[in-house]
Amino acid sequence: MFVLRVIPLASLPATAPGVLDYFWSAPLPIGSVVRISWGRRQSPAVVTNCIDVRRAKLAVKKSSFALKPIDAVLIDTPQATESQIALAQWLATYYAASPATSLKTVLPPFFGKPKHRVTLPESPKLGAAVPTGTFVLTQPDTAIAELRTVIARSDGPVLIIAPERSTVEHLAHHLADTGPTVFHSGLSTTAHAALYRAVIAREARVVIGTRGALFLPWTALSHLVIEDPLSEIYKSESAPRYNTPDVARQLAAHHCARLTWISPAISTVHFHLKENGALRVVDHKPHWPTVETVSMEHERRDGNRLLLSRKAQDAILDAYEDRSPLLVLSARKAYATALRCARCHSSPRCANCRIPLRLHRTVEDMLVCYHCGAFHQVPKQCPSCASGPLKPAGTPGSQKLAEAIRTLLDRYGHSAGKLPILDGDLVRNERDERAVLDAFNAMGRPMLVASSMIFGHRYQRTFSTVIIPHIDALAANPDFRTNERLVAQLERIADLRPSRIIIQQWHDDELLDVTGRAWDKLYRDELAQRKMLRWPPYTRLVKLSVRHRDRRAVGRLATVGADRLRRAIDHMGATARSGTSILGPSNALIEHARGEWTQQIILKTSLTGERLPELLAYLPPGWLVDVDPRSIA
Ligand SMILES: [Zn+2]
Ligand SMILES: [Zn+2]
């Protein structure tokens, strides 16, 4: 008789534990698939462990319920590798997520389907030492060189992960002679399944893919490379809300693979590891353009009330005459972040999300909610006080910047025509994105207005001059990572290899000096502040959110949740008490969306391993858990 530990693939009632034990008359390999019952519910489940009862007598005796048999064996051969299962278990613990959700994150959508059954070789013993890796600061050309070296030196499969599909395709283009196989979420099931089998058979020597490629059934891995580890795209938005670089370290550990980060910039946490000698940092990023900062307060005092400083105007006219490629990096999308009434200062807000609506200026003016996508006609006059028409307000968006450039060129008798704009509000899919870039390619005098979306094309595009009209707005979100994010954006701009960056600064007193690239001092100051305020890397952060249709009810739920956590922390002993603090409950940044109100709690904690899920298990059902959140807002 054997005790089978399984993770169900269907979500069972909240009362069911995430991992279940059943018994069966014959041993089954890890990764095989069975059918189990829980109450009246049935579900396929994956075997994660199989123990001979004779060796588990004590466990069986101690278990609080009588072990039941599985209903049936569905597939008696492993369909998932031990590494995939271990990754799923790690995801569940580290992100305090349900094992079923974590396992489904790892397994492909065609898992277990008759047409896609696989034959897995004996799983090698998994390594346990989690590497910090080597951090290589790169620009596009040195990044490609670094990747070539990695591939040439590897004696086994190489996996290269990049944040978005465009970068994956650019890297595959540059490395075409190494015969890479590409992976991204848009792959057809057939192509995905073919790659899945090629990885099992170790035929895929070089794989370049987006984050999902980490979950392929690797049976061996020689080198794992993460491109741009600071990219926000690496943070998954659905449970278990994993962060790709952390999963990569686990996968590298399993296969004792070498781990390399190739990155335009370093983060405060990486800097901290470097300072402590725990991370090797190599600088292959010699290029740094001339950076000129213009104070718009001075410009105003000198009588220039336009959006573009005189220096920026000259640069645009020079680029027009030289036919050299120019980029204007917009900190905001669409035409304007909001419309506002000059008299009562009210702004039209989304009925669902209660956030200010953005102004889009396409064929006709339109108000759009960037959160739920709802759109509305522009009211003829202020809906609150009817005193007159509303005016664009807030930081100008990419459309307004394009308008300002066209007006400037017209003033000098240059006909610019429609400037291509690349921003996530106006470009809704890859076809639109392609159309904008084709329009830019076709220009005799190439000029582009773009949001940070352009960074996905760092390996394929260069600009002679980059203008940042609103650096203040680039560093505006109220978060402890603000400065680090600004540095990363500037380093990504440098990857577009401009010889010159012109930065317009609207508030003289606020901004850090970015001209000289003196980041070390910045990171040391950051670390000192984070230590004082107990932010990562000195603590871990967990964002907990609860939602309800009724505003008062959500307040009550949030208070109950916070109380439960406080009592649990008391109950869990000294380390939990001294190492954990609760911020909130408070309203979420978007407090109302899709008919629901949201409140949140931020946990700062030093709890690790099983201790964090143990604490969060005290929360009533229905709370969303986000460990290492992208932002605390
Ligand atoms: Zn008004
Ligand atoms: Zn909305």
Name the features.
4 domains, Rossmann fold, single chain, seven-stranded parallel beta sheet, 24% strand, binds zinc ion, six-stranded mixed beta sheet, 633 residues, alpha/beta, 18 helices
Kindly provide the name of the CATH class of the largest domain: Alpha Beta
The share of residues in helices is 25-40%
Question: Strand sequence of the main sheet, in spatial order?
Answer: 9-10-8-11-12-7-13
- Tell me the number of helical segments per DSSP (H or I, 4 or more residues long): 18
Give the structural class: alpha/beta
Number of domains: 4
Distance between the ends: 52 Å
Provide the CATH superfamily of the largest domain: P-loop containing nucleotide triphosphate hydrolases
Tell me the number of strands.
Answer: 28
Distinct small molecules bound, one entry per kind: zinc ion
Description:
This protein is of the alpha/beta class. The protein has four domains: 1-77, no CATH class; 134-284, 3-Layer(aba) Sandwich (Rossmann fold), CATH 3.40.50; 290-333 and 397-527, 3-Layer(aba) Sandwich (Rossmann fold); 540-627, Alpha-Beta Plaits (2-Layer Sandwich), CATH 3.30.70.360. A seven-stranded parallel β-sheet has the order 9-10-8-11-12-7-13, with helices on both faces. Strands 5-2-1-4-3-6 form a six-stranded mixed β-sheet. Helix 2 packs across helix 3, helix 2 crosses helix 7 and helix 8 (268-275) packs across helix 15 (519-533). The chain is globular and about 90 Å long. The protein starts with a strand and ends in a 6-residue tail after the last strand. It binds zinc ion (ZN) (2 copies). Residues 341, 343-344, 346, 382, 384-385, 387 line the site of one zinc ion.
